[in-house]
Inverse folding.
């Protein structure tokens, strides 16, 4: 039984990593690629580490596997955020199928000021209109 | 915080007294310590709120793992099939979190769930800009994000 669970974890972890690398090749723009790499790869590492901990079932190995999982969970989103943010502001093009961008109109490329669009009460309650610049 | 320390101390006492120095026994000790704290909570002021927090954390973990798996499957399906089903876009999410720590936590959680990636916080810390991969149902997505944020914040408050 435990063999079966271990095998499932290792195989699905490896498949997720394969999926992440396929995602880098196939996805059209930087931000969608960041989606594929960080999450699928992080989950893949987590699954493989769980399998490792189960396989050796020693306190030392399990503790290290757990530490690796915690560090991955702490660092992966930060890295994705920093790379995605830098790429966006440097001006990497979004994919042509992108349906919406609520950040662009609020960002001032000269001063690097990023408004929230909710500075005043009236602003916060305002609904989007047809005539708004997109 | 005092609750967590007492829980750990009780678990260590259990391990020492039962004389079985294994991780599993420590876990048993933690459970018993938790039950003991749950029983004396009404009488000890500094413990208030601690026992209620543990089920919340566990519930949040379950919720988070479920979200993680579901969304990974969705992204995986889109990568593997030739036509693109995704509708990516950047949306602004009003933040309920106020302090820097809370915002960091919420942003990291949002980045970790597949399908959403936190891009930036506005200068006045009121809005988080998120890149989402599936904007088919924007209302639904916003509701999910709100629920996630709300659950995460409950762990701290």
């Amino acid at each position: 039984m435990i063999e079966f669970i271990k095998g499932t974890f290792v195989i699905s972890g490896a498949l997720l990593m394969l999926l992440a690398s396929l995602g880098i090749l196939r996805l059209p723009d930087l931000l969608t690629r960041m989606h594929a790499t960080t999450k699928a790869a992080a989950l893949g590492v987590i699954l493989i580490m769980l399998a490792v901990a189960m396989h050796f079932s020693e306190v030392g190995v399990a503790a290290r596997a757990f530490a690796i999982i915690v560090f991955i969970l702490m660092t992966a989103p930060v890295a994705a955020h920093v790379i995605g943010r830098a790429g966006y502001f440097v001006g990497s093009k979004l994919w042509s199928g992108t349906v919406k961008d609520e950040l662009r109109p609020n960002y001032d490329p000269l001063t690097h000021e990023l408004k929230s669009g909710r500075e005043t009460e009236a602003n916060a309650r305002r609904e989007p209109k047809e005539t708004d610049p997109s | 915080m005092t609750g967590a320390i007492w829980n750990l101390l009780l678990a260590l006492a259990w391990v020492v007294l039962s004389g079985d120095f294994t991780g599993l026994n420590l876990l048993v000790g933690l459970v018993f310590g938790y039950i003991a704290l749950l029983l004396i909570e009404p009488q000890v002021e500094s413990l208030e709120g601690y026992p209620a927090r543990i089920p919340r954390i566990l519930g949040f973990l379950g919720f988070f793992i479920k979200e993680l798996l579901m969304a990974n499957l969705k992204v995986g399906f889109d990568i593997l099939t030739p036509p693109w089903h995704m509708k990516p876009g950047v949306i602004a999410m009003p933040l309920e979190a106020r302090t820097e720590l809370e915002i960091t936590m919420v942003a990291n959680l949002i980045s970790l769930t597949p399908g959403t990636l936190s891009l930036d916080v506005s200068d006045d810390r009121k809005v988080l800009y998120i890149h989402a991969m599936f904007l088919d149902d924007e209302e639904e997505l916003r509701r999910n994000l709100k629920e996630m944020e709300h659950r995460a914040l409950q762990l701290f408050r």
Chain A has a mean pLDDT of 79. The helical segments of chain A are 2-26, 30-56, 59-90, 121-125.
